[in-house]
Amino acid sequence: MGLLVDVVLQEHGTSNDGNTARTFFRNAEKSAEITGVNLNLIERFKNILMVMASGQDIDTNSFDEYGVQTAKLFISLYPWFYMPSSVHKILIHGADVIRYAVLPIGHLSEEAQESRNKDYKMYRRHHTRKNSRINTNKDLLHVLLISSDPLISTIRLLQKKKLQDLSNETKSLLNVMQLDETNLNSDCDVIVTLL
């Protein structure tokens, strides 16, 4: 599979990142064969992570039931392995976090935080006065506060994504405003709309 897992990279932490995880879950059968982890368990974790990262409205009752079933499967298959606290929090308490979160859970991820770095650079370059540091930082703070406000974020459409190659007949059956992330191409161009 060509994966470097848990390799320490100088000044970068470890080689465990989103690309490693995506490759691992994309090739679930091979991952199960190599690691000896149950294929069904890998698929269930993949589903949970995809739902959480989707940014869509999640049915918390179904998520709660699915998480508890996954936890029971984990415990029955690997009773000798201590369940990591991060896995426990997602499987057992994930539905409660999703239920009471102001934003969809996918907007609170590390990936979303990293994307703000690009926004920071773009806002600083194009949306600030450059006559003094104080004015630049003040303008930057204002635009970051506006763009990250939970109320405004839920009202406006932040991202438009191109659809996968679907037939026109299929596209006509989809409600584009409420389209599932599973029908979107993950490698598509993202257009960020600003206020």
Outline the structure in words.
The protein has 195 residues and is mostly helical. Helices cover 56% and strands 5% of the residues. The chain contains nine helices and four strands. The strands form two sheets. The protein has a two-stranded antiparallel ribbon. A two-stranded antiparallel sheet has the order 3-4. Helix 3 packs antiparallel against helix 4, helix 4 runs antiparallel to helix 5 and helix 6 crosses helix 7 (133-148). The termini are far apart.
Descriptive tags:
195 residues; mainly alpha; single chain; two-stranded antiparallel ribbon; 5% strand; globular
Brief digest:
The chain is mainly α and 195 residues long. It contains nine helices and four strands, in the order ββααααααααβαβ.
Main sheet: strands, sense, barrel? 2 strands, antiparallel
Neighbour order of strands in the largest sheet: 1-2
What class do helices, strands and sheet pairing give? mainly alpha
Helical content, roughly? 55-70%
Share in β-strands: 5-15%
What's the mean pLDDT score?
Answer: 73
* Strands, total number: 4
CA radius of gyration is 20 Å
Terminal Cα separation, in Å? 43 Å
Order of helices and strands: EEHHHHHHHHEHE
How many individual helices?
Answer: 9
Extract low-pLDDT stretches.
161-195
The backbone outline, from C-alpha atoms, is: globular
List the helices and strands and how they pair.
Elements: E1 8-9, E2 13-14, H1 18-26, H2 28-35, H3 39-53, H4 60-77, H5 85-100, H6 110-126, H7 133-148, H8 150-155, E3 159-161, H9 168-172, E4 190-192
Antiparallel strand pairs: 1-2, 3-4
Helix pairs in contact: 3-4, 4-5, 6-7
